[in-house]
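Saturday, quiet lab. Running sequence design on the structure tokens for the scaffold JK sent over.
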């Protein structure tokens, strides 16, 4: 069986903010785990408007709590 992973950019949707994006990333990570995905990756993009994944350590700490 092929092992699959998820890569999340932690996008900030129009009309919402970073808090909502981090919450959505947490929900996506939970679903990925429930569905048997092997890994959950977070892309690191600094100073990029619309992306809340600038500091992966912060995103992963939020997802893991």
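Result came back. Writing it out in full:
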């Amino acid at each position: 069986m092929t092992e699959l992973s998820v890569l999340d950019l932690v996008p900030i949707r129009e009309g919402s903010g970073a808090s909502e994006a981090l919450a959505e990333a947490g929900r996506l990570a939970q679903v990925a785990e429930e569905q048997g995905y092997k890994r959950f990756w977070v892309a690191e993009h600094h100073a990029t408007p619309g992306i809340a994944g600038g500091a992966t350590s912060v995103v992963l700490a939020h997802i893991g709590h």
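Notes for JK: The first strand starts at residue 5 and ends at 8. The chain has two helices and two strands. Ask whether to fix the surface positions before the next round.
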